[in-house]
Amino acid sequence: KVPSLRNVAKTYPYMHDGSFKTLEEVLSHYQKGGESHVNKNPEIKSFNLNEKEKKSIIAFLETLTDR
Fold first, then answer.
1. CA nearest 29: which of 43, 42, 51, 14?
2. How many helices (H) and strands (E) does the chain have?
C-alpha cells in the first residue's frame, strides 16, 4: 500500500530512518538522485529545480495538510 500524502508537512521525520526533518531536505535528496547504493534502480536520476519550483512543490504539499 502506498502511503498517503495527507498531512505530509506534519509527519516528520521523513524517510525510512528518520534522517530528514524538513520537506526541503527530502526534496534536495531526491533532486540529487538519492544516495548511491548497489541496489539503486538505474532509472533513478537527479533533476534540476530552481528555487521558485522548489517552493511551489512544498507549497503544494502543504495544501494537503490539515490546519
1. 14
2. 2, 0
Joined together, the cell numbers standing for residue 59 give 507549497
Give the Cα separation of 18 and 50 in Å (integer): 26
Q: What is the per-residue pLDDT across 36-46, written as a single tens digit (0 to 9) for each?
A: 888 889 998 99
Rg (the chain; Cα; Å): 13
Query: Considering only CA atoms, which of 53, 34, 54 is closest in space to residue 42?
Result: 34
**Which cell is 37 given?**
547504493
pTM of the predicted structure, to 2 decimals:
0.81
Distance, in Å, from the CA atom of 23 to the CA atom of 17, rounded to the nearest integer, reads 15
